[in-house]
Amino acid sequence: MSWHQSQGICAFKSRLNSALRHVRESWSRVVDFVLIGRGEYKMKNSCKWVVGILFLLVSLQPLWAKDKYTVAVLPFSVHSAENIDYVRQGIGDMLASRISVSEKLEIIGRDSLLDVLKETAGKEFTPADVHAVGKKVNADFVVWGSITKIGSSLSIDGKLLDIAANKSALNFTAQCPSMDEVIPKINDFAQRITTHILGAPPTITAQPTAREVIVSRPPSPQAAREAEIISGMGGGRKGTFTSSINPDFINAAQPLNRKTFWKSQQFSNEFRGMDIGDVNGDGQNETVIIDPHNVFVYQKKGNEFKLVQQIPGKSYDYYVSLDVADINGNGVKEIIVSSYTGQQVDSFILEFRNGKFQTIAADLPWFMRAIDNGSGIPLLLGQRRGIDMPFDTPIHEIVWKNGAYAEGPKMRIPQGLSVYGLTLDKLGSGGAEKIIALNSDDYLCIFEQTDKPLSRVAIFGGSSEFLWKSDEQFGGSNTYIEPMSRSGVKEDKSEDADLIHYINLRIVTYDTNKDGKREIIVVKNLSSASRMFQRLKLFTAAEVYNLEWEGMGMVENWRTKKISGYVADYQFKDIDNDGENEVVLALVLSVGGSIKDRSVIVTYSLKSE
Q1: Which of 78, 505, 543, 549 is the most buried (most CB within 10 A)?
Q2: Model confidence over 315-334: pLDDT tens digits?
Q3: What is the SS3 assignment for 392?
């Protein structure tokens, strides 16, 4: 028998003896005589038994407590200028994990709370709200509270509501000067909750003996889950770096190795889009590039970057994006160009047939983006232009059907997200694919797939589908759709600035370190002006980031050093046909009415030579 078990038995015996002693004393004073008449006492056997049983029931009530109590842990409200959703999620998970250690305490599952919490989504909980939630999910107790972050300090205010009594059973406040102190404080809160509900002191972890230290045991599922939560709440872990990482990337200790860096000749164009693939069936990858009204096909051989073919468009064409993918399944990758002329989307698709590039589909009504979700089969997404907001429409898969490109099934992507700056991937977490997207303010977000509109997902206080949002902006584009007048003619008025909608950069996912978990590769264009100004986005430099999803947030594995110029598009593909993928950038060095357009292609290898 363990020390904890013997102590529990002793405590039970002590409480039982105390209760029985109290019954005997009360019995001798009250039960033997019942006051009746004028100062006379008379024994009454029936009254003796009734009163005695009542005293016994009252005295032994704590010993006959419920076998199991149910506890609901509600999402804590957040007061912070930063996005600390990962902290809120971590606190909720840690409380649930710690409270559920006792077999007498059962945590109500998150799924059971979702429908009930929809009614209070987007607003602060009141005691009445909390009590109503507790009643609806049949909880005995509800844990709720708030988190306030100012600078590096965090304040946690927690409460425990007794649903039956409809009163606050426990209040808890903790000040944490740094994130390192959050977890111990949450442990303390969880122990106090357990003590209050069960009337037992917090469990003290016994120190292992020398023999226990020597014998290695696998962690329990509970300990493994808590380790995962703590890892996610830490938020400050850096990626693992090895000597194989290109020294052009931040945190490499070696000097710059120019053998891993390549730059093409300059071109007098403003690059808009770029992708890589075998588009002419020769077994070698080509690099396809667009400017506002031309398609170029190049091939890199050694240090030379040679033009294979130029496919000119009309001077009034306005190309906005480019992808290379085999969607019709004939083994030849198509060149997919999204074009916007006037108020009309008039996209088209080229394919190499009979020795030349031919248009196999024209006047397509979709903005299109091909994505690689790790399945090995490319997925082409399409979005029709909205009436007032161009990207406030459903996103569909575009499929090859009966010899033509057609609108396939609607994707479970919140309406309000743009098809640009978006991809789908499991990110190594298993289960369904997650939505990785840049929002309209260029913050990177992670969502669960849902049929809800964005207005019901990205809400104040969070939603179950909104998993994470970055603290800093990524992406950034100079390509936009201009506002239109009712007549359909382009206008350029300051009052229409809020109608400008940018064609954001693609998001790439790939398992670069071959650990079975795909990371996110994303560009951050750096502006000398604030991104708050719609018209003025002077991107003069860029960085490329590799981010890894850890279930509750992103960790940065590496990033390139600052690159001079604006990244119009990028890919992680094999540009030089050496069997290794490279980070490939379509870099715009200068653009403008009074400045000659200049663009280059830049590549980085992930490995040192």
Answers
A1: 505
A2: 999 999 999 999 999 999 99
A3: coil
